[in-house]
Amino acid sequence: MKLTTKTTLILIGVLIIGIVIGSVGVSSYLRFHHERKVAEFRRGRGFVSEMERIIDPRPEQKDQIHLILKKHSRWIQKFSDEQIRIFVVSLDSLNLELSKVLTPDQMKRFEHRMEQIRHRPPRPIDRRPGPPPPPPFGE
User: Fold this and answer.
1) Do 139 and 71 contact (CB within 8 A), yes or no?
2) How far apart are CA 99 and CA 57, in angstroms?
3) How far apart are CA 94 and CA 107, in angstroms?
4) Which of 1, 27, 41, 136 might form a disulfide with 46, Cβ 3.0–4.6 angstroms?
5) Of all helices (H) and strands (E), which one includes residue 26?
6) Interatomic CA distance for residues 131 and 78, integer angstroms
7) What is the pTM of this model?
8) Buried b / exposed e across 41-59, counting CB within 10 Å, b at 16+?
9) What is the dihedral of CA 73, 76, 82, 88, to 10 degrees?
10) 55 with 47: CB under 8 angstroms?
11) Of residues 123 and 24, more confidently modeled
């Protein structure tokens, strides 16, 4: 094989390896960034900052709008926590009922998939049981 052919093949190989490494790196970064944003939104901080970015309040409105958004963000956080708790309880119930009907192989595949689903959403820091309070209106 000629030297130019070897050099070309090596360069193409390095290029392909670089593309693969870059794709994996970008994918990992985007997934981490997305999960972090979702977690912040569920905790209320992301809700306030995102709504302020969308509203773009004038300086004289900023404090008043921030207080309103902060008040509602607490309710959204509690509601989100409650929905996650309900989802987990529903999956456990589904698992129990299906375990009586599925074959061991089917059950293994089902449990594997449910484990993937459970670990996908970021866990909130504070998971208190109980229904969320109604949203504060008229204050």
Assistant:
1) yes
2) 54
3) 11
4) 41
5) helix 3-43
6) 8
7) 0.43
8) bbbbebbbeebeeeeeeee
9) -100
10) no
11) 24
Q: Which of 71, 95, 9, 80 is nearest to 39 (CA)?
A: 80
**Based on C-alpha coordinates, what's the Rg of the chain?**
24
Specify the amino acid at residue 84: I
Length of the chain: 139
CA 96 – CA 90 distance, rounded (Å): 10
Q: Specify whether the CB–CB gap between 47 and 41 falls below 8 A.
A: yes
pLDDT digits (tens, 9 = 90+) for 71-98: 888 888 788 778 888 888 887 888 888 8
Q: Can you read off the two tokens belonging to residue 28?
A: 């990992």
2-38 burial code (b ≥16 CB/10 A, e <16) = eeeeeeeeeeeeeeeeeeeeeeeeeeeeeeeeeeeee
